[in-house]
UniProtKB/TrEMBL annotation:
<dbReference type="GO" id="GO:0009887">
    <property type="term" value="P:animal organ morphogenesis"/>
</dbReference>
<dbReference type="GO" id="GO:0007156">
    <property type="term" value="P:homophilic cell adhesion via plasma membrane adhesion molecules"/>
</dbReference>
<dbReference type="GO" id="GO:0045296">
    <property type="term" value="F:cadherin binding"/>
</dbReference>
<comment type="function">
    <text>Cadherins are calcium-dependent cell adhesion proteins.</text>
</comment>
<dbReference type="GO" id="GO:0016342">
    <property type="term" value="C:catenin complex"/>
</dbReference>
<dbReference type="InterPro" id="IPR027397">
    <property type="entry name" value="Catenin-bd_sf"/>
</dbReference>
<dbReference type="InterPro" id="IPR013320">
    <property type="entry name" value="ConA-like_dom_sf"/>
</dbReference>
<dbReference type="InterPro" id="IPR039808">
    <property type="entry name" value="Cadherin"/>
</dbReference>
<dbReference type="GO" id="GO:0005509">
    <property type="term" value="F:calcium ion binding"/>
</dbReference>
<dbReference type="Pfam" id="PF02210">
    <property type="entry name" value="Laminin_G_2"/>
</dbReference>
<feature type="region of interest" description="Disordered">
    <location>
        <begin position="348"/>
        <end position="369"/>
    </location>
</feature>
<feature type="transmembrane region" description="Helical">
    <location>
        <begin position="188"/>
        <end position="208"/>
    </location>
</feature>
<keyword id="KW-0677">Repeat</keyword>
<dbReference type="GO" id="GO:0034332">
    <property type="term" value="P:adherens junction organization"/>
</dbReference>
<dbReference type="GO" id="GO:0007043">
    <property type="term" value="P:cell-cell junction assembly"/>
</dbReference>
<keyword id="KW-0472">Membrane</keyword>
<dbReference type="GO" id="GO:0008013">
    <property type="term" value="F:beta-catenin binding"/>
</dbReference>
């Protein structure tokens, strides 16, 4: 009984819960025998809290270095003797993860005769604590998670075969699920809504602007308000029904302006859009205008133009005797053609006289086509 050692491993996601309790199960033991010794280990805000009472006062040992409610496996070692009570987490020998205190004198030993209850108790600890002289009281809330490898002074407890169990499952293979609430800050939500509203306004502005631009180009480019791609087959045929014929109609002259216009006989009034044109009258009017026009030549007279070879005594080119030596050809007429034919006249014709030379010099300015 010099040194006692309890060790265990646990895993949980909840910050509150009673890991184990050993001590009186009712207040009769204190009333009859005056025994109030107990030991309990619990989680408070995720940190381990050890309560020990040797019968002369309750001490509290708390470790605030490592939080155990993170879903990972943690080891807890509890060692006590006459003068000290020590609690270690995850075999850490540093002062930050070790908590040591002394028991309340004058008692030096833990005197308990009750069962070891793991994960909770079958009775209400609040009712038991009312009849006890405990300065620190353990909580009734049960532990939710996994507890394994529970040893006392090196001896392993068989937690798979308890004498009494409730809401306990064998082994630690089952998964633990924690309900998580997705919280959104109010300011963050307001910022998201403002951004969405701005994007919506910008989108509407772009749509309205593009619509106005399309309407403007539509009015200037196409007066018929229909655009057809004539590269497609049948595009022109489909456009025939939508074409506005009023665009091609000529404006009817105002009768009031007829008095101001000069009375020219060659001007013809345009018929109204609903009048049926008189073709015969139109042609007769055109004919009279042309016949009465003094500046127009009478192109309808008959003219006779001589055909090639007409009036020539030679029947064909083969009948010409230009290639024979019979007789001399007369080229005297070349001198009458002007200075352009002077060279030919000198070669084939007679020598011109001085009088003819003067005529040639006087006719130097004559041009021929």
């Amino acid at each position: 009984c010099e040194d006692s050692h309890i060790s265990l491993e646990l895993r949980t996601n909840k910050p509150e819960g009673l890991v184990f309790y050993v001590g009186p199960t009712n207040s009769d033991a204190f009333k009859q025998l005056g025994v109030q010794d107990f030991m309990s280990l619990e989680l408070k805000d995720g940190y381990p809290v050890l309560l020990v009472d040797f019968g002369s006062g309750t001490v509290r040992v708390e470790q605030r270095h490592t939080k155990l409610s993170d879903g990972e496996i943690h080891r807890i070692d509890i060692i006590w003797n006459k003068s000290t009570i020590d609690m270690q987490v995850d075999k850490c020998n540093l002062p930050t993860c070790m908590s040591v205190t002394a028991p309340q004198p004058p008692n030096e030993f833990l005197n308990v005769n009750g069962p070891l209850q793991v994960g909770g108790t079958h009775m209400k600890l609040a009712a038991v604590a009312e009849g006890m002289n405990w300065s620190h009281k353990p909580h009734d809330e049960g532990f939710s998670g996994c507890i394994k490898n529970l040893t006392f002074n090196g001896k392993l407890y068989n937690l798979g075969m308890p004498s009494l169990s409730k809401n306990a499952d064998l082994g630690c293979n089952q998964g633990m699920a924690v309900a998580v609430t997705f919280g959104i800050d109010t300011s963050f939500l307001v910022a998201i809504l403002i951004c969405l509203a701005i994007l919506l306004i910008l989108l509407l502005a772009v749509v309205v602007h593009r619509k106005k631009t399309d309407d403007l180009y539509k009015d200037t480019d196409d007066i018929r308000e229909n655009i057809i791609n004539y590269e497609d087959e049948g595009g022109g045929e489909g456009d025939m029904t939508g074409y506005d014929l009023n665009v091609l109609r000529l404006m009817y002259d105002d009768p009031l302006n007829e008095k101001q216009m000069p009375n020219n006989t060659h001007l013809i009034q345009r018929p109204g859009p609903d009048d049926v044109p008189d073709i015969c009258g139109f042609l007769d009017g055109k004919k009279q205008s042309v016949d009465n026009d003094p500046e127009t030549n009478p192109f309808d007279d008959v003219r006779h133009y001589a055909y090639e070879g007409d009036g020539n005594t030679t029947g064909s080119l083969s009948s010409l005797a230009s290639g024979t030596d019979e007789g001399d050809l007369n080229f005297d007429y070349l001198s009458n053609f002007g200075p352009r034919f002077r060279k030919l006249a000198d070669m084939y014709g007679e020598d011109p006289s001085d009088e003819e030379d003067d005529n040639f010099h006087n006719a130097a300015s004559e041009s021929w086509c």
